[in-house]
Amino acid sequence: MRKEISETIKLSIPIIIAQLGVTLMGMTDNLMVGRYLGAVPLGAAGLANSLSFLMSSIGVGGLGVVAALISQAKGQHNTAEIGKLFRAGLIVSLILGIGLGLAGMLIGIELHLFGQTPEVTRLTKPFLYILSASTLPLLVFVAARQLADGLSLTRVAMAVTVSALIFNAFFNWIFINGIGFFPRMGLNGAAFATLLSRIYMAVAILVYIYKSKNFTPYLTASHQQALGKLIKKVFQLGIPVGFQFFFEIAAFSLAVVIIGWLGENQLAAHQIAINMASTTYMMATGIASAGAIRVGRAYGEKNPFKVKQAGTAALLLTIAFMGVWCVTFLTCNEFLVSLYLKDNAEVTTIAATLMIYAGFFQLSDGVQVTALGALRGLTDVNVPTVITLIAYWVISLPLSYFLAFTFKMDVEGVWVSLSAGLTFSAVFLTIRFYRISTKVMPR
């Protein structure tokens, strides 16, 4: 177990940094919008980021199954299969990128149905259109990184993502404020910076893959081989996994809508707290991805003991990692909130309270996403999808409305409800992994 934990740490650190970089782009948008433009634009940026990520989550989550399949093929020493999976993943990313991008724009057209204040709706629409256009390059990047991650070459995506984060922060500053000969674009400048950053990410990782000798054997071995069956397989496995992410993120996104009904200050405060919680969540998804790769490798080797060991190592790491963040959120809540806003006492007070709730649900959030990753490594996708559907759409969302409005708990009631759904998901997904980990063998 000590060796397995060590291997998982080595594999997960670059993935965590890469995942953190993707999240920090949205966080950078919100930090700079809050600092330069104020609370209402911050709420609009948060709403647009939430809705855009909601749609792209189907593709981001679904494409994650490709790394597990590549890891399985690596365990079976099937070089040609690895190359075919990479190409199939790219094709699926193009299809999903176009479809989900258009869906995001459609949400923008009908944004008035979400019942937000007129000013938030006005500011959110163009921001959401630009972010929706960036879905295609984002998913191409995600698909390309599956090859590197599945082969345990996780530093590739890390390097690209970190450089893109710097790129994004720089152009946020320029486009929002109109530095030099660039016009002042205000809120929409942050969205354009994200669009350019995602295009850079897609181009950079593809150029590296096709130029690096590390990937040449896999690309040449599969050249001109038929991909129809693998594209179908990626869709069959990826769509349920995508909806696992969708159900969770949709619950959080619709929670934003419910909180918007409560008021602009509550919306801005929620955005600050959820930004912090989302950052730690995405870091936990790095451990989950490493766990999926390690479980997938053991699964490909037909070794049930190593399957269970790999999943356990990932879960232990997540508990330790999220435990640290739990303590941090509980003890440094006011300082963390002060990074976003300087002169809005009401929003600051609400956000500091929400950070306490965020601290408590760190463990459940981390465990459930790691258990999902371990199950993805086993290509077990259907039952986990049902579990996530119940957790967020049967428990979290109805309870959010009930506690917020019937029991007058306001925004705090929404956060209690989200915590309940996360805990349900964590418990039953973990039980699912241990129930099947020693029984399921590759087809």
Helix-strand layout with pairing:
Blueprint: H1 2-37, H2 39-75, H3 79-109, H4 118-133, H5 135-150, H6 155-177, H7 187-211, H8 216-221, H9 228-262, H10 264-300, H11 304-331, H12 333-338, H13 345-360, H14 362-377, H15 382-406, H16 410-436
Helix pairs in contact: 1-2, 1-6, 1-7, 1-10, 1-11, 2-3, 2-4, 2-5, 2-9, 2-10, 3-4, 3-5, 3-9, 4-7, 5-7, 6-7, 9-10, 9-15, 9-16, 10-11, 10-13, 10-14, 11-13, 11-14, 13-16, 14-16, 15-16
Protein name: Multidrug-efflux transporter
GO molecular function, one term: xenobiotic transmembrane transporter activity
Subcellular location: Cell membrane
Give an account of the 3D structure.
The structure is a single chain. The protein is mostly helical and 443 residues long. It has one domain (2-436). The protein is 86% helix and 0% strand. It is built from 16 helices and no strands. It has helices at 2-37, 39-75, 79-109, 118-133, 135-150, 155-177, 187-211, 216-221, 228-262, 264-300, 304-331, 333-338, 345-360, 362-377, 382-406, 410-436. α11 runs antiparallel to α13 and α13 runs parallel beside α16. The longest helix has 37 residues, at 39-75. The mean pLDDT is 88.
